[in-house]
Amino acid sequence: MNWKINSILFLLVLISCKEEQKNETNNEIKKLESSYLIEANILKDIVNQPNIKVIDFRKKDIYNNEHIEGAVNIWRRDIEDASYDYGGIMASQTQIETLFGKLGIKTDDTLVIYDDIGLCDASRLWWLLQNYNFDNVKMLHGGITSWKAIGGKVTKQSTIINNTIFKLPETSGMKYFVSKESVLDAIKNKVVILDTRTPDEFSGKRQKKGAAKGGRIPTSIHIDWAEAVDYKGDKRLKTIENLKQIYNKLNIKKNDPIIVYCHSGVRSSHTTFVLTQLLGYTNVKNYDGSWTEWSHFNHLPFETNNKL
Fold this sequence. Notes:
Elements: H1 2-33, E1 37-38, H2 40-46, E2 52-56, H3 60-65, E3 67-68, E4 72-73, H4 93-102, E5 110-114, H5 120-131, E6 137-140, H6 143-149, E7 154-155, E8 177-178, H7 180-188, E9 192-195, H8 199-203, E10 221-222, H9 240-248, E11 258-261, H10 267-278, E12 284-287, H11 290-294
Parallel strand pairs: 1-6, 2-4, 2-5, 5-6, 8-12, 9-10, 9-11, 11-12
Antiparallel strand pairs: 3-7
Helix pairs in contact: 5-10
């Protein structure tokens, strides 16, 4: 009889443990969703609602090969100001309103943005919209891979678009934006500056296309943006505990002023999202022009490693 009782108790404990693990997973998902993230299974339930507009933020040829059914396509250059001598500067409010209108996006739509590289590109559009006080946006956690994993519909057919009138809020907050002039002041005032590029870019060994020279902004601390995601796996964000371990090593307080940058403000937009929306840092700005802009001005200081 005792062995039967023990067996039953063992099964109850096992079930309880599994339920606890399930609850922990659900709590983690819920926590991430509250920070502009959406899981594929939840998107699948609402994707056909008229106020949901899915944005495929990848190159046009990739979109043409396969995309979520009903998605419209936007790529980096679509949200850049082409009037500069270098690339990467965020588009104006008017440019975004015109673009979204041509894509059939309405002012009261909920935007769901996805890519296929751990939300790196999607975060750039999220960041831009945050600066224009447009909050009705989510990013698809796990990207198109997670969508296909649950049997979400994909297609090669372009989405039929009916032009609309789209308006951003009248006042733009620019709450996560910082200019090169502010970065120069930050160097003098010893503000924390995070370089979110690869180690070779940080050292100056690699000079990416678009930059006038290799190197980094003086006083920068290196932290590769990709450390925040399972980059060689499913490209989902790491758990909150993993993220805390990664960024706690930098010994930065949650309220410290922080400026992040990369090559053209894309990867650093991702880090801005992670720091502000997942880890609770309260004073983070993304340098829009990043190294591409900084490298074009000879009067701005820069550093490289002595041994390249």
